[in-house]
# Entry
Amino acid sequence: MSGETILIIDDSREIVKHLAEYVLPLYGYKTAFAYDGRTGLAYIRDQKPDLVLLDFNLPEMNGLDVLQQLAQESLNTPVVLMTAYGSELSAIESFRLGAKDYIIKPFTVDEMVSTIDRALVELRLLHDKAQLAEQLRRTKVELARQNSEMNTLSNIGKAVTSLLSVDKVLSRVQEAAVTLTNAEESTIWLHEEDGTALRAYSVGDAETGDELWPLDSPVGDVLHNGRALRQAQFSGPGVLLRHGEYARAILFVPLKLRGISIGVLGVSLRKDARNFSERDEFLLSILADYAAIALENARVFQAADQSLAFHVEELQTLFDITRTITSAVNLPEVVQLTIQQVHNSWNIEALSLWWLDEVSHSLKVLANVGTPAELLSQIEIPAGHGFVGEVADSGKPIYTNDVNTHPLHYRDVDDRTGFKTQSLLCVPLKYRGRVMGAMQMVNKQNGNFDDADVERAESIASAVAIAVNNALLFDATRAGGKERGAEAAARRLTFSAEKEKMEAELLLQKMRSAIKKMAVTGQLNAEQIAAARNLVQHSKQLYDLFLKQKDDPA
# Structure
């Protein structure tokens, strides 16, 4: 290491000039000089040089006198004694007085440089130790700061990922982003469903909340390339965000989930003239990872919550329909109540119940809503023909959202009624494994028919088949007027009630299976699973209450 200050004390001006002006500066040393011992001592006291080159033969005070004075004053500046050939005894005495080394005149440049290096070893080691200690101190401070930041991030991450509301996640993440980067405002941009723009959600001084941003903007670039953007411009209006909107400094990082950008998390400064640092970018990127996971969890939970709420509502609807239609035993009344209840619970244009005549092996409409009753009642469809006939013949449900191109489309019905069928769902009416007819729903108004509609329709159709069968048995018993027939009817009614209970249990089991599947695939976390199971338990309690009221109306 060079850069140390070396004091030369020698009465030979030639030696002083040679060392101070030519030799030592060449090796990076700073120099000072004195021509006598007293002047040299005064300099040592005031300036404390790193090394002294001390001549033995000096006027007034020789080299040994200077060393003795340094020892008395406890001045620990290292000293190299310069002595003439034959004065080795003086050199030995100088070591006793604290000299680090000696060099015999005349000396070469290499000899002088080597001697200086040996004399400065201890000083350099002490200097390096001090530097290492200071570096260690700074490292500890930095590690403590980073540890504090990471603990803060971890706590924020745990808090954010435990939230089950998308709005709460957005708000909490943006507050954390402002705190971590000391920003003035924070914004999260998420893709619109149609993928043509980004919707902004902001906190702080931003006025961009709940606005649409174009994809051809810095935010869109970050979303597209998946890389962070950090810019600052303190002259002029600043960094352009979008048309007419600027900031002095911005930091945008992508929100990535499984390697795919789903949005952008940004912070900005509109007043403060400073730039965001690499450390800010690092912290915001970690926060963005937490945010992406939290948003996905919240969305999955809300979707699952809505799905479970729909199933609970569906179960309640099934209870209402079952309770209503099974409370009647007159066939026309059962049919009419069925039409009303089912049509009211579905957003469909038309609904019809078809009954299978086992003698003619054809189906006739029992009741309908949405199509001309007088015309539809005149139509008889052979089993195996059209949607109704095929369902009655096969005992399997059918649905299509493009009736006109379906090979089973029975055009004669539309031609005679003037009704235009676009989408259709038809399920069998089964009792004890025997197909008794079919229930047909036409033209769903809020989307397409799907497998979920099939499951729901089959559950309702089971209740309808039981109710119609009960009504038929009641009519048969009343017509026969025999007690034995009444007892048989009562047994069948009991069986029907048991079947109704089994259908409800089946629906509850489907809900439990759906929850288990979503838990296994990681779509629901522990809290979401618990909430979903609570919904199912509530549904079970609701049904048990219904059964209790049915068994004991009082």
Observations:
- The chain has 16 helices and 19 strands.
